[in-house]
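Minutes, project check-in
Item: structure for the 435-residue chain
Input as provided by the requester:
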Amino acid sequence: MYTIFKLEKLGVEQLNEMQNTTYDAVTKNKKVILLSPTGSGKTLAFLLPLIEKVNPAINETQMLVIAPTRELAQQSHEVLKTLGTGLRVSVVYGGRKVSYEKQNFKSPSHIVIGTPGRIIDHFDKNNISTKHISNIVVDEYDKCLEIGFEDQLSDIFNRIEQINSLILTSATELKKLPLWLGQKQPLTLDFLDNQKPDIHTVLVHSLAKDKLETLGRLLLHTQDSKGIVFCNFRESLERVSTYLHENNIAHSLYHGGLEQIDREISLLKFRNGTTRILLSTDLAARGLDIPDIDFIAHYHLPLKEEEYTHRNGRTARMLRDGLVYVLHWSEDPLPEFIIADEKINISDLPPSNPYQPSEWATLQISIGRKDKVSKADVLGFVCKKAQINTLDIGKIEIKDLVSYLSVKVAKVKQVITATNNNKLKVKNVKVKLIN
């Protein structure tokens, strides 16, 4: 079993029942289907047993993690990096140049994580050899089918000569198994029924069809909490965002129309507490590993029960209980799958204080993983140069070329003045505030 000190880097003291069962099953079985709810810890469940099957002495790609979205691919990549396995890991996905990713394959990566189309691109360009790939994960296979990746997955599996271990994960029941699983049926681990967290659902009555004021008042009453507000359409998101800005309610915006870097910054500021509200389409319903989300608010009623389930799963991570608000105008039909535990009229809520901005801000430092910089390096550099306490520093995230850290708002000017154009390890760095 993987040692505890590596799990502690992820804030995990011990594996849960699903993760332990998966570990044992993958050790003893060639093919495993893992059915488990969103937020139950599937990423760690499939990574741990397969990491141990990778031989660091073999300078070839041996493990492939296929994900339906770049966010899911990045999530697995971050978990692997945090575990500190010593293995070379690369992540590949659409939205950036293939040539940039190619640089990472000058020395073959032991593990490659990516979306189907981009993995095939690298196969075609001989950037990744399939000769030694024998351990494969298809993460969120149900989402892969929903997006339309069935043919691309078949293409990938047709290129793999031998499979020693295959894990296929899903957050919903699978009605159809792919042909590339072969004739021998895999072992199915079904945790969908016995791992449902308790979600308290509150129906929030809006007096008007336009629910902007209702949402605004709700967010004022939940301002000490961290939550995601879901809308069905990108245009609606922009309208809601404008209203929140006009009422000084800070938030991050997240949808498919944003540039990739803008999406990443929005999530980063939400993770580190710079913003407490994430305003999103269903793009954030799956694949985002953001702990400690206190509530979900459905500004728009979801169109399907499956969407409703996945949205709600954001507030019940790792089987913790969750809180869901459903904003509802009385003349809108309420889907049968929405069952409220409590009903409130927004007009009955007492007056609330103005929205208080976060005590945290996000800074970017122009040095990253490729410069061999660590979180400890960044923390030590900032605290020493700016003469501040470690309690003034929040979450630190190291990317390939840059690093981000959250800093108490009251210390931002002091930190930038003391650190900008100063040397961190081997280079002078630029430090700036991310608005």
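Outcome recorded: Confidence is low (pLDDT under 50) at residues 1-5.
No further action items on this chain.
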